[in-house]
Amino acid sequence: SRQMPQPIRLRRACTGASGSGLIVYSIQLARGQEYLLSLNDGNIQEKLIAYERFNNGSVSNEMRVIISSQNLYFFETSPPDLSSLDSLIKLELLAECRATTAKTTIPTVLLVLSVREKEEGGGDGSIITTKKYKCMNESNARKIAQLINYAKNLHDEEKMVIRTPRLQNQTIW
Predict the structure, then answer these.
(1) CA-CA distance, 52 to 148, in Å (whole number)?
(2) Do 103 and 112 touch, CB atoms closer than 8 A?
(3) Which top-rank group of organisms is this from (predicted)?
(4) Rg (CA), the chain
(5) Is residue 173 one of the residues assigned to a domain?
């Protein structure tokens, strides 16, 4: 019988988050996809958009984010698991994401996320909390903010798509 050779590199999905093709193979994005599948119990409907590092902390203090088509996963170690998950933010609850510089004695670049929280009793989610993450530098913060806003826009557009049931056994002239 024939045996399959051992894989040389990690698997990647065939399409990107928006349905377009993927960029050139990247070990970082392949790892991000593997981590995403381990965090979301293998849900292949949730597409990876980016896997990025926030800061140059020690290995035990390094913050990373997995940006997917449905959620943002912030965690402290690599590889991520549910015990190292700092926060999980659903894109439907994200109100704003921006990069900013804190005006302190030592300027600190921050990624600021404004998140709506669902109220008890099914309110409109008007309570907004702010989460701040320290970044390596301004370009890193801007890049991550841009990727998060891109994911948010894709998520919002997906909600606007009208899905119709497939017409079976019917000929359309």
Answers:
(1) 11
(2) no
(3) Eukaryota
(4) 19
(5) no
Average pLDDT over residues 146-159: 92
Asked if residue 172 is part of any domain, the answer here is: no
Query: Position of tokens 């891109």?
Result: 150
User: Three-class SS of residue 61?
Assistant: helix
Determine the pLDDT at residue 98: 92
Our count of domains for the chain comes to: 1
Question: For 132-158, b where at least 16 C-beta lie within 10 A, e where not — what string?
Answer: ebebeeeebbebbbebbeebbebbeee
User: Does some domain include residue 148?
Assistant: yes
Question: What are the tens digits of pLDDT across the range 24-76?
Answer: 777 888 888 889 998 998 888 898 999 998 876 655 568 899 999 999 999 88
Order the strands of the 71-75 sheet from edge to edge. Answer: 48-53, 64-68, 71-75, 85-90
Q: Within a domain: residue 11?
A: no
* CA dist., res. 160 & res. 48, Å (int): 20
